């Protein structure tokens, strides 16, 4: 199974939703990087369940254990093993539905692929798998901060039919985002999102959402055409997140309704660098970073576990009225925010090392010198 991601900065995640532990192995991180374990723990705290009445009530401390790859707090250049133990497992919640295919879940497709599945939670398809991604993303963030100064910030842009005002992305800070339990920097929209989630939960239902993300200070030139474009690697990374159903960069699908004269962006010099006037392309052109902010959006479906009776079948084909119990999120978007950040960071860390290996660092200057 393809549980590994990346080329030079390579990450393998392991573990199941109700197994002993989950985590990741990071291979290819350069030696000598000083690791702040508390910073990684803070990333995990943003992702963990039980943060508010609007997310899953599963109680997990998600305490990080770093088992290898460090000496005196610095990376050795060897594989780094990051682990979090599962402590609040309730596999009994799934005993009555072990032989049934839950609507919207990966139960049947997993069995079609492997011939069997772990019926406790979602197994490898569970959002609990993303703990390894977030922990590994914490390593990538520290590498990119030290060497390049890259900053990656994500936030909830909409939940259900409630959207935010989409403020200037350059003005959004992590403090603004984390001030809200829903990870939305728009206070008025956040209040309406909470109302929508409460109403959905009262009706035994769930809602989808959109997470926006911006990557700042990514140097021009990163990206490996043709098949490893920065665009395509970001799309692959973000669409691999559980419940992700759509990816956009720049104007995304809205570009299909534009004229070329609208979508083409004027080129100019600003602060001694080649820039674009409006960043319509979202910081990527030809799959290569332009030096502008990389702007992306990810759409997430409503969680499939809902408190309503649903029609399905068992492995033998018998019809079944299914009511799922357990602890589930009414919307994944708020807890997906650190996961989106992590996957963007992992892609950028890999492309940073690939660009450095190909060109040296900082590499050839993109474009002519300022007049």
**Number of DSSP strand runs:** 18
Major beta-sheet overview: 5 strands, antiparallel
Mean pLDDT: 90
- The coarse silhouette is globular
Q: Which consecutive residue ranges, at least 5 long each, have pLDDT under 50?
A: 363-370
Summarize the amount of helix as a percent range: 25-40%
Describe the structure.
The chain has 371 residues and is of the alpha+beta class. The chain is built from eight helices and 18 strands. The chain has one domain (4-359): Chorismate synthase AroC (Chorismate synthase, AroC fold, 4-Layer Sandwich). It has helices at residues 37-47, 107-114, 130-147, 174-178, 187-202, 230-239, 260-263, 333-359; strands at 4-5, 10-14, 21-27, 64-68, 70-71, 74-75, 80-85, 151-159, 162-163, 209-216, 244-249, 267-270, 273-276, 284-285, 288-289, 294-300, 310-313, 319-322. The strands form six sheets. Strands 1-2-3-7-4 form a five-stranded antiparallel sheet, with helices on one face.
